Amino acid sequence: MNESMRDPAGVVRAKRLPREQRRRQLLDCSLQVFVAKGYHGASMDDIAEIAQVSKPVLYQHFPGKHELFLGLLDTHLAQLEYELTQALATSADNKERVQATMATFYEFIARKDEAYRLVFTSGMDNDEEVEDRLERFHDAMAGAIAEVIADDTGQPMAEATMLGHGLIGMALSAARHWSRLSERPDQEVSSQLTARLAWRGISGFPKESESSEGAQ
């Protein structure tokens, strides 16, 4: 069976898909458009054309461009949060945790789909709903890091959370700078440099077991 068909006007349309599968396809196609044109340069016409669907089909799933962008941002922030959480769980050694976490940020930016542009270069920095999602992402990751710091060092949770935000902020700032370079240093080297800087700071808060041994 053909995977596409022509409407009476001769326009090629995609075959009918289950609702959730169609939604994922529309998100994938919209990512291509937002990456290429930015939020303000993209249009629902562009997305419908790439997805090979009619605009009414597109509007059945997303009321407008803004909702489509937010759905896309939610998808990729959730994926990045999952990958960072996995990185934190890779080892009980804090230095290795830091290295794995920083590597995950750079891997996200180096992905071929360039989804990092949704976070860094979409032109939506002043959008309240986008800011809210990014803030919740930062809070979630800072909280996950804070739990590790508090468990390992005995730091009060409020102080550990400040350290968690500091580490996330540094990682995002370094990775954002790297994403903007026309000639980027090697990905692994850049990741290791950022990890070394982060470790120099966080290693100043040793594990409770190490502090106890040093006091004996």
Structural account:
The protein is mainly alpha-helical. 73% of the residues lie in helices and 3% in strands. The protein contains 10 helices and 2 strands, in the order ββαααααααααα. It has helices at 19-41, 44-51, 55-61, 65-88, 94-110, 116-120, 128-153, 157-180, 187-202, 208-215; strands at residues 4-6, 12-14. Strands 1-2 form a two-stranded antiparallel sheet. A hairpin with a 5-residue loop joins β1 (4-6) and β2. The chain is elongated and about 60 Å long. The termini are far apart.
Distance between the termini: 76 Å
Main sheet makeup: 2 strands, antiparallel
| DSSP, total strands | 2
The run of helices and strands is EEHHHHHHHHHH
Radius of gyration: 21 Å
Beta-strand percent range: under 5%
Strand order of the largest sheet: 1-2
Low-confidence stretches: 1-12, 210-216
SS content category: mainly alpha
Number of helices: 10
* Quaternary structure annotation: single chain
In percent, how helical is the residue content?
Answer: over 70%
Produce a short descriptive summary:
The chain has 216 residues and is an all-alpha fold. The protein has helices at residues 19-41, 44-51, 55-61, 65-88, 94-110, 116-120, 128-153, 157-180, 187-202, 208-215; strands at residues 4-6, 12-14. The protein is built from ten helices and two strands; from the N terminus they run ββαααααααααα.
SSE layout:
Elements (H helix, E strand, L loop, with lengths): L3 E3 L5 E3 L4 H23 L2 H8 L3 H7 L3 H24 L5 H17 L5 H5 L7 H26 L3 H24 L6 H16 L5 H8 L1
Helix pairs in contact: 1-2, 1-4, 4-5, 4-7, 5-8, 5-9, 7-8, 8-9
